[in-house]
Amino acid sequence: MTFDSNHFVRPDIREMEAYKPIVPFEVLSKQLGRPAEQIAKLNANENPYGPSPTALKMLQDGAFFHIYPDPEARDLRAALGDYLGMPSGRILCGMGADELIDLVLRVVLSPDDCVLDMPPTFGMYPFSTVVNAGRYLSIMRDENFEIDIDAIEQAVADNPRIKVIFACSPNNPSGNLLSDEVVNRLLALPVLVVLDEAYIEFAAVSGAESRIKWALAHDNLIVLRTFSKLAGLAGLRIGYGAFPEWIVPHVMKIKQPYNVHVAANLAALGSLQDAGWLHKKVDLLVAERNRMVGLLEEFAFLWPYPSHANFVLFKVVGIDAYDLQQQLQAHGVLVRYYRKPGIDNCIRISAGRPHDTNQLITALQKIQL
Ligand SMILES: Cc1ncc(COP(=O)(O)O)c(C=O)c1O
């Protein structure tokens, strides 16, 4: 008997392109021969200030790491309810907002149901769609990264199999916001709208408001948020969202019971107690983002797009973006480059601490065009 492994792999998974994982920080640090402290890590929109003091203290004092966590994350959802001014029953937590994207699609998609997306945007939307046997449809944003709402309305009218639309505000990687008018037009469609507000706290500094409470008023709206960016907990994987009432029991039913682990629970609870500390760091990062954009004006090969998040997208002119990324990396500065429709030859730089920006500037001064 010959063993045909293909027989055991779902045909769509067999065809699927592998997600290109980033080189782990420790590995890169060894490859570059630089200790982590000498690397300006500005490639993944993490929060360089890390966890808040109370989050760290609660991790240090944690006494129940040997016990499985509460499957319903009751304490954390209650604390989030207080923080947001919402009923905790409408809040769900996950192993990062990433897991919540996947869980929503697991509940909603039957094979060949469609997800509509507006690239360039966050890569997990197509990834989780394909993994969940959905069909990925996209309508490109325009040159200012505004979405084409007329085309979206037409696409939904033409295709009853479109079940979910992902809308990211501020959008990653462009940094722009969706207007109320556009969100209202999306909500008027017979689809589930997943509004991803992973970076909303940074936009709030310039007056943008979260729409998380809109989920209480709209049966077709889910709003996702995360502790990764606001609270410096990217490595602990903890995100949350506000959900319409009807979907909550279904997500609870299909999620892994212990998805939010004890350490993530504790760190998130501690972070919420330090909201003032966190928002001061947000202010620092927004100020540093603005300082970085000002300083980068000196470099004619970088054209910034306006951003409401903790990162800035730059069009790279007169040099290959990958080459630029590689040269910066050799100087210990990590940025993200893109070679994709809509963001071809662009780089995205996360806001860092003042010394990260200084290292970036020094490295840029050494770039060979
Ligand atoms: C737009 C957007 N949504 C969600 C996430 C994922 O957040 P988490 O770390 O909570 O999974 C990211 C992370 O980069 C993001 O950029």
Structural features:
7-stranded mixed beta sheet; 13 strands; Aspartate Aminotransferase, domain 2; 39% helix; 4-stranded antiparallel beta sheet; 2 domains; alpha/beta; 15 helices; binds pyridoxal-5'-phosphate; 369 residues; Aspartate Aminotransferase, domain 1
Number of domains: 2
Cofactors, ions and other ligands in the entry: pyridoxal-5'-phosphate
CATH structural fold name of the largest domain: Aspartate Aminotransferase, domain 2
| Number of alpha- plus pi-helical segments | 15
Low-pLDDT windows of residues: none
Instruction: Please list the strands of the largest sheet in the order they lie side by side.
Output: 2-8-7-6-5-3-4
CATH architecture assignment name of the largest domain: 3-Layer(aba) Sandwich
Structural class: alpha/beta
Shape summary: globular
Total beta strands: 13
* Average pLDDT figure: 97
